[in-house]
Amino acid sequence: MVGTLMKKKVALRILDFVTWSFLLLGGLAIYYRLNIYIPLILLVIIFVSIVYKKDIARWMKDAF
Q1: How far apart are CA 5 and CA 3, in angstroms?
Q2: Separation CA 29–CA 2 (nearest Å)
Q3: By C-alpha distance, which of 23, 4, 6 is closest to 58?
Q4: What's the CA gap between 9 and 27, in Å, rounded?
Q5: Which parts of the chain register pLDDT below 50?
Q6: Helix, strand, coil tally for the chain in percent (to 5)
Q7: What does the pLDDT read at residue 16?
């Protein structure tokens, strides 16, 4: 029961992060209307996801 709850929490955190990054990407793309910024933002999102991968791995370890 506790494990299922933790899995849901982890999934929600990942989902929140993905949603936030897409909103940021879309918002900035609309604001600047420049293709130059899109790959830059994508690189930032990839970098942040790599940094957070340790946290995600820790949450997964806690879940099981």
Answers
A1: 5
A2: 41
A3: 6
A4: 26
A5: none
A6: 90, 0, 10
A7: 79
